[in-house]
Amino acid sequence: MTTPNVQSMMTELGQAAREAGRRMAAASTAQKNQALRALAQAIESSTAALQQANQQDLQAARAAGHDEAFVDRLALSDKAIATMVAGLHQIASLADPVGEMSNLRVQPSGIQVGQMRVPLGVIGIIYESRPNVTIDAAALCLKSGNATVLRGGSEAFHSNQFLAGLIGQALVQAGLPQAGVQVVPTADRAAVGAMITMPQFIDVIVPRGGKSLVERITNEATVPVIKHLDGICHVYIDADACPQKAIRIADNAKTQRYAPCNTMETLLVDRSMAQQVLPDLCKIYQTKGVELRVCDQTRAVLAANGFKDQDLVTATEEDWRTEYLAPILSIRLVDGVDQAMDHIARYGSAHTDSIVTQNHSTAMRFLREVDSASVMINASTRFADGFEYGLGAEIGISTNKLHARGPVGLEGLTTLKWVVFGDGHIRS
Amino acid sequence: MTTPNVQSMMTELGQAAREAGRRMAAASTAQKNQALRALAQAIESSTAALQQANQQDLQAARAAGHDEAFVDRLALSDKAIATMVAGLHQIASLADPVGEMSNLRVQPSGIQVGQMRVPLGVIGIIYESRPNVTIDAAALCLKSGNATVLRGGSEAFHSNQFLAGLIGQALVQAGLPQAGVQVVPTADRAAVGAMITMPQFIDVIVPRGGKSLVERITNEATVPVIKHLDGICHVYIDADACPQKAIRIADNAKTQRYAPCNTMETLLVDRSMAQQVLPDLCKIYQTKGVELRVCDQTRAVLAANGFKDQDLVTATEEDWRTEYLAPILSIRLVDGVDQAMDHIARYGSAHTDSIVTQNHSTAMRFLREVDSASVMINASTRFADGFEYGLGAEIGISTNKLHARGPVGLEGLTTLKWVVFGDGHIRS
What we know:
Two copies of one chain form a homodimer.
Chain A: H1 4-26, H2 29-45, H3 47-63, H4 68-74, H5 78-93, E1 101-106, E2 112-119, E3 122-127, H6 132-143, E4 147-151, H7 157-173, E5 181-183, H8 190-195, E6 204-208, H9 211-220, E7 233-237, H10 243-255, E8 264-270, H11 274-287, E9 291-294, H12 296-303, E10 312-314, H13 317-320, E11 328-334, H14 336-347, E12 352-356, H15 360-369, E13 374-379, E14 396-398, E15 406-408, E16 414-425
Parallel strand pairs in A: 3-4, 3-6, 4-5, 7-8, 7-12, 8-11, 9-10, 9-11, 12-13
Antiparallel strand pairs in A: 1-2, 2-16, 14-15
């Protein structure tokens, strides 16, 4: 339950955001870029004071017994600050999506009808410890013409409050409303409950954090949520795959980094390719310390090629449904692309799936029929990323089907309205 | 609460829909059109039996004491059937949105990245009495490659069950799964509660009906809802309006039809245009029997032009927030476009708003800054409609901000996924 004080504070904040949203939507590109660059400059010239505020959070985290990995994520080192500043300049240099008109066609009645890209309105971001998200998220929402309500982790409270002050000043310097970006001024958890149930003030919530945070918010929110849940990504090595490409891609998709959501968790291999691909590939995995959880047929192929039985774990039903985010890989042999697609439909999370094949027809079937946010041909799943896709920036990756799917850049923070040009036209 | 029997029936139906959805998504355009044309033919050749089933519903409605307007909406007259058949041929002739690829750009890494339009998956439609919606909605969902779960009003139960049989046969004839379109086979209201809380089986709910139905569904659904709520539409007659165009548009926007959601409910007039426009316009309204609810300044202008005091109602705060759907109009004088836009932002429902002006700068400001699903320049709000916008068909009008906004055609029943073409590319 929300305490009355927090509720009324959030209502006030929501009203201010809604009002500021209209002015943010009408802001010129030049104004928005000016605010972004002013903020970059303010961060640079206030580094000492910012790091002082950050120290308060770091001390509190250490006092609370958090480990060094946690404290590291919280720290605004010189390098972290330089990255934030570079990010602001990068976002300022992106094209402004707002106001773009498309498909303006003249209709039989004589009116001309098309669509205009416009901001969503007010965006609420709920995130965990890293205070750099305060700047990244604010910058993306600002550039896309939205007002923003930011609710960072309570561990970063002092850092976020300091950054909020700088953001407010930069907005005012550019002639924009200070309430264009608001940081919730309390660490009270009730503020989150209020935020996600104010559809009259907030148009969309973007939670950034672990799965439990995202699930809780999704279940309780009455405001639409652009969310990222599981990334159970597959690579399927087809009967017509080029073995060299298959090994390169399957290696990269698993081992380039273990923690990201677009890392492969299950490898599917057509039975006819197993002998050509699996022994070499699994040697690479073992060298890199990847634990292999395999189906019986995979075990048989590997055993016949000198792999030791005790080095292989038998995959369970549960493995096909697990996002390891770790040096663990499940491997399954399948009979062709249909069985591969059945497996992906049944166990996958519709995030990112890739086929390796030289067969055009098979590739195009996989591309069309696999219902995931990103579907790839002969490429590593690790490419599923806003920067790699050319979005210039990324507020997150969506596993929603409606609105924004996959990597979400500036466009995902906008929507399309219909525009009609007439000259006294009436309907008959 | 859902009774256990209905719950397990709906789970079974949901699973069948999810499985059928994969086959529907992979269906060729030719197959989908074949199913639509086969259905048209089946309806024509089964007219007598269809009307017999319909008679059962009509008799039940009369026995339950419903009025003739209600019975009329329920009736499948020869004309209603001909319209359904024509609609099927029309939807068969539309371009297939599924599989369209766009923006395929080569990225610095060498991969080519773009987007592909794909079905949403499974669409649930919940509607009230008219049984023709069964065919219209099924056809649009089928053409856009989705599986569909239809839940019509219990009053049309026999008609809908008969139509369901014809749809199933047409699907099978075209080699598509019979479960591609399912009509909920019970009039039990618990089925609706189950439908709107099965995100694992249904991707989006489209409620078609009165505001109370839509609000109830929106509040209780855990599946995303493409919804239509209020249509409090405005025409603003600017200081630089052409008076002839203003009168023509404001007349048409109110009186062409009173009940539709895109009919004007509030007329805003710049003070400097009131004398030139209001007396002639209000004479038209009075001739047509439109009740006028006016602000004090409007009353003064009309009184000075011979209107009788007792013919004018004083508008209250409540009037600005009311969707009359009737021959009633509220009128308010404002000071320029800013005050007009403030009024629209405060009282409007973000559905459809139009400005009448010859001033380009004012027109473009209104177009950019009014945050409604449809924003118009010098055109009647009555144009806000899928057919008038060239969509070829319409499943409804959305007042959502995310995903589909305004008139929703086939595209609104699809989404975009990312597609990546590589040739052995890995991330470095």
